[in-house]
Write a structure and sequence with these properties.
The structure holds two protein chains of two kinds. Chain A is of the alpha/beta class. Chain A is 44% helix and 16% strand. Classes of the chains: A alpha/beta, B alpha/beta. The A-B interface holds A 1-6, 11-12, 14-16, 21, 24-25, 27-29, 31-32, 35, 51-54, 56-57, 61, 68, 168-177, 179-180, 183 and B 171, 222, 224-225, 227-228, 231, 248-249, 252-256, 258-260, 262-263, 297-298, 301, 581-582, 584-585, 596, 598, 601-608, 610-620.
């Protein structure tokens, strides 16, 4: 059992033309390497680590739930309506590794856009952030066969399921035979099959839904790795990418590179958290990173690495927001950056790599 | 020349030891320290008690028929489970006597008549084993909520292995099976909260014991919480996490082995009944040995240690004990020895007929003679076997050394096995996994005298420097280079002992070496015919359950706490479970397990030459 001991670079990744194979490659590489924390999340008690074994096992369990209980087939759509959190990333990976098409939406998406999204996608399953989001989706009459509520527990009389109940069931389904069937399914995904669905915010009129294939997504990740190769011990701090599909993919790339620990930031607490964990990679919409570069943070710059401070200054100087007339509504965040288009020019690759 | 130098060094050590002890033993003993983890001062050797030993002797036992009747009545609700705690249900006296060159246990129930069974076919062997027992460990303190099982309660010792049954579901259908897995009609499976509660309770009283945590079942890797449980056991402070596993999960899903290792899984207590598919046929999988070998390969790659465990049944697989020893020696780089378990008629074997029981009975003495015959006397029946409880002497040394670091030296006591000498015996070997050379340690090292020296060192309890000096002198004076296997030196032995076993007992990293220490043990669990309450109360391998910690034998046999606890905490009938959660696969019916051939994932890089190591072999 000779296993790869090298980091996932562009050359290596070229062979893995689907996210399913990439998942398996990452799982193998990480399992055979030094113990690694894949995700870090923070709550009132502090930072919590998700080691690689737990992350990959959870992906399998969600995937088994989707396959066995929701009968998800390759090409089926799955909506994830959640802010950035560990469960969201796990669900996204589980869907794409099994050939499903994942559409991630911000819970703040307006009702009309959300309604159209569900009408267009006809998702087999939707993961929603919490009870309020679940109620909203149900109130809008969205067509979805199964709803999984990430935080909290849905009413007992509903057909919907909580994340913990799903993981409990997924855990029981997680036998050697079924886990291998999960991997077999991951291997069978073809590069030309769609992997993600996203809103093209540049299209005239209402945002148009488009899909990107596994090959196209992996190409983006390869670009990312080429422009900014991962190094052992990298710690990336991610601010919620919102509607920026390119940024969401950047997070996948950081998970899959086999080296990086991805810390998921808390909105409005970025400066404090960056100072706390001292990352050497930052990912997020420019305006969010600017927030992290406010004076309150800069006063504490000695606690962060000089590289981070350098980046923050760079971003602040390059992407300073234009002055807005008083009382004017803020422009949609998703239109302020190139990152909203497809093919994507990732702010991560474009800006941070400088 | 080397032997000559060694003999001189040995003689100098002998003189040094005697000279030192001529003073040391005349100076009053230093009072033992009282570490925070312990209920009192570290016990001196003369403070340790022993159970009644020798024969003829009388002990407390159980009527095999009364127990089954009572258990049935409790399970059906006719009698209250509280009677097990407050009463003496099914208890009768038993006599252990020597008759016709054998040791037998005999007991008479007024209602069901006389029961007799074999304890040992070699009284001399049993006499030596009992004589080598160093004595009991602490009595426990503050454990009222953990040890609360009436006459079956554990009273002595800190425990060596804490077994926790994660689930009664299994992916095999074996015979024998302690728990009648897959056949009892209900599912008993711990939640993660249950597991945490059991592990938290296990460190709630004194002595706070450093034990091996062994997840068991059923097949523990079928529990959805197996990986989290390994991680949590490590988190609370246990440094060795094992699983009693049939290995199928690892053979069928290699990635799981790597993830388990990362989660904290250290050692597979590996069901292993013989070195051919035929020798495993009673497990009802036609290619089971092939599966085992695949599992070993994968666990080796993942860095998981493996201790094969063989249930030995006379007339079924007793011919395999020699070949299994050979297999362990041949794979000593990955196998830590072998644990033989003479059959205990429990679970679905409790209904065995008297004739079958007599024919199938196998004891530790059978094992000692079988291994002696197989190795041409290289493993000597009378020189090489020590009771499992002899390890308590080394535990005492580890405690003493750690106490020298002060009260904050450690939050746990060392691993300390102090079980009843009738519970089992073992031989310790050294083996070179490159040259395949091996020997019993007792061939070249006087363990008996070393244990006596340890008692002096711990009893006199001098400071760090003087203790270490005494250990060094004792070590050298008891080592005989002329009897050591080729290539083995005192230096190797010191490295093995202090960088291997002793470090392991103290929870420190064990260094990898060509020579390894292999443990070959016979663990003889009780059943209703051989039951002895003096053994139960000294159990060092308790089960951690939702109803406290229960002696291994009281749980699996005895009054049958397993069935009672499982019934109290059943989560579903098997039928309901399958309907709600899906049916798991059971490998049985003498069919083969399909093992996926290894194949390669796509080659990496279409333009550039693939970098070294970029091939990823798909396993499974």
């Amino acid at each position: 059992m000779v296993q790869s001991a090298i980091p996932l670079t562009g050359n290596v990744a070229n062979a893995f033309r689907t996210l399913g194979l990439l998942y398996m490659r990452s799982e193998q590489r990480v399992s055979r390497g030094a113990p690694r924390v894949v995700l870090r999340t923070r709550d009132a008690d502090g930072w919590h680590d998700t080691p690689a074994w737990r992350f990959f096992r959870h992906v399998i369990r969600v995937g088994l739930f989707l396959r066995e209980r929701c009968k998800m087939q390759p090409g089926d759509r799955v909506v994830v309506l959640s802010p950035l959190r560990a469960e969201r990333i796990i669900a996204e990976w589980a869907v794409v590794a099994q050939g499903g098409v994942v559409a991630t939406l911000d819970p703040g998406t307006p009702d009309d856009v959300l309604t159209r999204a569900f009408e267009h996608l006809s998702p087999r399953v939707a993961f929603v952030a919490d009870g309020a989001t679940r109620d909203r989706v149900r109130r809008l009459g969205a067509r979805v066969e199964r709803l999984v509520q990430i935080e909290g527990v849905p009413p007992p009389d509903s057909q919907d399921m909580s994340w913990s109940a799903m993981m409990d069931l997924g855990g029981t389904l997680d036998t050697a035979e079924r886990a291998q069937a999960f991997r077999t399914a991951a291997r069978s995904v073809r590069p030309e099959m769609p992997a993600i669905a996203y809103m093209d915010l540049q299209s005239p009129g209402a945002p148009e839904w488009k899909t990107a294939s596994h090959a196209a997504v992996v190409d983006r990740l390869v670009d990312l790795w080429k422009s900014s190769p991962a190094r052992p011990g990298d710690v990336a701090y991610a601010v919620d990418p919102g509607e920026y599909a390119g940024l969401r993919l950047a997070l996948w790339g950081l998970i899959a590179d086999g080296e990086t620990t991805l810390a998921l930031g808390t909105p409005e607490r970025e400066a404090f958290e960056i100072a706390e964990i001292r990352p050497n990679v930052l990912v997020g919409p420019v305006e969010s990173l600017q927030r992290a570069a406010q004076p309150s943070y800069m006063l504490r710059q000695a606690e962060a690495s000089s590289r981070v401070v350098q980046w923050l200054r760079l971003l602040t100087s390059r992407a300073a927001p234009r002055p807005r007339p008083e009382g004017a509504p803020a422009p949609p965040r998703s239109l302020t950056l190139e990152g909203s288009r497809w093919p994507l020019t990732s702010p991560f690759a474009q800006e941070v790599a400088q | 020349m080397n032997d000559l130098v060694s003999a001189v060094v040995r003689e100098l050590a002998e003189l040094g030891w005697r000279g030192f002890q001529s003073v040391n033993t005349r100076v009053p003993e230093t009072p033992s320290r009282s570490p925070d983890w312990a209920p009192g001062p570290l016990p001196k050797s003369h403070e340790r008690t022993k159970p009644p030993l020798g024969w003829p002797r009388e002990t407390d036992s159980l009527c095999p028929r009364c127990v089954i009747d009572t258990r049935t009545a409790i399970l059906s609700g006719e009698r209250d489970v509280g009677e097990l705690v407050t009463g003496h249900i099914g208890e009768i006296k038993a006599q252990i006597t020597e008759e016709n060159g054998r040791l037998v246990i005999r007991k008479t129930c007024r209602e069901h008549g006389t029961f007799e069974d074999l304890i040992s076919l070699d009284p001399q062997f049993s006499r030596i084993i009992e004589a080598r027992y160093p004595g009991r460990d602490y009595r426990t303190l503050g454990d009222e909520l953990v040890h609360r099982h009436g006459t079956s309660s554990i009273q002595y010792g800190r425990g060596t292995v804490l077994t926790i049954d994660l689930t009664n579901r299994c992916n095999m259908m074996c015979n024998p099976c302690f728990m009648d897995a897959n056949q009892v009609g209900y599912v008993h499976e711990l939640t993660m909260d249950d597991i945490k509660q059991i592990l938290d309770a296990s460190i709630s009283f004194k002595p706070r014991r450093q034990m091996t945590v062994q997840f068991s079942g059923g097949e523990p890797t079928m529990s959805p919480h197996f990986l989290e449980a390994c991680a949590y056991a490590k988190k609370v402070g246990y440094f060795n996490v094992q699983a009693a596993t049939n290995g199928l999960r690892f053979a069928l899903e290699p990635e799981f082995a790597f993830q388990a290792k990362e989660a904290g899984f250290d050692l597979a207590y590996f069901q292993f009944d013989g070195v051919s598919n035929d020798a495993n046929s009673h497990r009802h999988i036609s290619n089971l040995f092939d599966v085992k070998r695949r599992a070993i390969e994968i666990m080796r790659a993942a860095g998981i240690q493996i201790l094969p465990v063989t249930t030995v049944v006379n007339g079924i697989n007793d011919s395999q004990v020699g070949p299994i020893l050979d297999f362990s020696l041949a794979n000593s780089d990955v196998l830590d020895g072998v644990s033989f378990q003479p059959v205990s008629f429990t679970g679905r074997d409790e209904e065995v007929t008297d004739d079958q029981r007599r024919a199938r009975r196998y004891t530790t003495s059978h094992l000692a003679h079988a291994l002696s015959r197989h190795t041409g006397g290289k493993i000597d029946v009378y020189r090489d076997w020590y009771p499992l409880g002899a390890m308590g002497a080394f535990g005492a040394l580890a405690d003493h050394l750690q106490s020298l670091h002060g009260p904050d030296g450690t939050s746990f006591g060392a691993v300390n096995c102090s079980c009843h000498p009738n519970c089992g015996a073992s031989v310790v070997l050294v083996a070179n996994h490159r040259t395949k050379t091996w020997s019993t340690i007792t061939q070249f090292f006087d363990i008996g005298r070393f244990m006596a020296d340890i008692a002096v060192i711990c009893d006199t309890a001098r400071g760090k420097e003087l203790s270490l000096a005494q250990i060094a002198m004792s070590f050298v004076r008891n080592y005989d280079q002329s009897k050591a296997p080729p290539g083995f030196t005192l230096l190797e032995f010191v490295k093995l002992f202090f960088y291997g076993k002793m470090r392991g007992m103290m929870g420190r990293e064990v260094k990898e070496q060509d020579w390894r220490i292999l443990w070959v043990g016979g663990m003889w669990f009780q059943d209703l015919w051989t039951y002895d309450f003096r053994r139960t109360e000294m159990c060092v391998i308790p089960y951690g359950t939702q109803e406290g910690e229960i002696s291994f034998c009281a749980y699996n046999t005895g009054v049958g706490w397993r069935q009672i606890v499982e019934n109290m905490h059943t989560v579903a009938t098997t039928k309901e479970w399958f309907e709600e959660r899906g049916r798991h696969r059971v490998y049985a019916g003498n069919k083969a397990v399909a093992l996926a051939p290894g194949r390669r994932l796509p080659l990496v890089g279409s333009t550039n030459a693939a970098p070294l190591g970029a091939y990823v072999r798909e396993v499974g």
